[in-house]
């Protein structure tokens, strides 16, 4: 079922917020250097005269827009698939073929575990091998799961190994999160913008330099 669009404010689509945020950040820069009006020489001179804080603000706002795009993408287009699978079975997930190869014991120093081997392919080409785990800690009598994550530029795939059915089948949880890497990319861009702003000399506060008076003036003050 297609996701319904949510509106924020007066007729603003929630999915338009990243475009508004990022576009507005650089629209102000374009206006200040008269990008569509002045000659190339004048644009360059105006750009050089702009304080670094102006560029830092633009990057910070753009980074916020990128992060918002990641959050909205995960919310609106996330795909979840839960199925009991046997070794050799495969399912389709957002155009990717996800195959459960096997589930084998994988014990650690203080836990008993099961580890699945999952192969992800696209158009017949293998793109990733994932190893989600299910662990039991006898001392604490506690069960945990170790999620396997495959990430690339525009999306993440999560794989979780859950309980077995006692007949060789295992519950596998698969998640496709589009634009998830944009959340971290936006954070990096925001940090970069903050560093640019901090490099602006107007925001650097240092101790005043010690001034040395001429010897005659200093002696007169002492006397």
Layout of strands and helices, then pairs:
Elements (H helix, E strand, L loop, with lengths): L6 E2 L3 E2 L3 H16 L7 H10 L2 H26 L1 E7 L4 E4 L2 E10 L6 E11 L2 E6 L2 E5 L4 E5 L1 E4 L3 E10 L5 E9 L1 H19 L16 H8 L1
Antiparallel strand pairs: 1-2, 3-12, 4-5, 5-6, 6-7, 6-8, 8-9, 10-11, 11-12
Helix pairs in contact: 1-3, 3-4
CA gyration radius, whole angstroms: 28 Å
Number of helices: 5
Helix content estimate: 25-40%
Average pLDDT across residues?
A: 83
Number of domain modules: 2
Query: How would you classify the helix and strand content by structural class?
Result: alpha+beta
Query: What does the largest sheet look like?
Result: 6 strands, antiparallel
Q: Order of helices and strands, N to C?
A: EEHHHEEEEEEEEEEHH
Distance between the termini: 90 Å
**Beta strands, count:** 12
Strand content: 25-35%
Shape: elongated
Low-confidence sequence ranges: 1-12
Describe the model.
The chain is of the alpha+beta class and 223 residues long. It folds into 2 domains: 7-75 and 182-203, no CATH class; 79-180, no CATH class. The chain has helices spanning 17-32, 40-49, 52-77, 180-198, 215-222, and strands spanning 7-8, 12-13, 79-85, 90-93, 96-105, 112-122, 125-130, 133-137, 142-146, 148-151, 155-164, 170-178. A hairpin with a 3-residue loop joins strand 10 and strand 11. Helix 1 (17-32) packs antiparallel against helix 3 (52-77) and helix 3 packs antiparallel against helix 4.
């Amino acid at each position: 079922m297609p996701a319904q669009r949510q509106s924020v404010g007066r007729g603003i689509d929630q999915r338009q917020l990243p475009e508004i945020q990022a576009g507005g950040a650089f629209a102000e820069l374009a206006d200040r250097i008269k990008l569509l009006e002045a000659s190339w020489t004048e644009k360059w001179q105006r750009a050089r005269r702009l304080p670094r804080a102006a560029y830092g603000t633009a990057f910070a706002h753009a980074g916020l827009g990128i992060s918002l795009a990641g959050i909205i993408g995960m919310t609106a287009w996330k795909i979840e698939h839960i199925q009991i699978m046997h070794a050799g079975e495969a399912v389709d997930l957002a155009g990717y073929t996800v195959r459960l190869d096997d589930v084998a014991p994988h014990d650690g120093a203080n836990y008993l575990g099961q580890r699945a081997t999952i192969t992800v392919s696209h158009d017949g080409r293998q793109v990733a091998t994932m190893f989600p785990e299910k662990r039991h800690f006898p001392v604490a009598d506690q069960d945990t799961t170790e999620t396997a994550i495959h990430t690339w530029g525009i999306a993440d795939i999560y794989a979780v190994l859950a309980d077995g059915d006692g007949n060789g089948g295992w519950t596998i949880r698969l998640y496709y999160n589009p634009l998830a890497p944009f959340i971290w990319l936006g954070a990096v861009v925001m940090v970069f913008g903050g560093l640019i702003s901090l490099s602006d000399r107007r925001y650097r506060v240092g101790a005043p330099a010690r001034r040395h008076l001429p010897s005659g003036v200093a002696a007169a003050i002492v006397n």
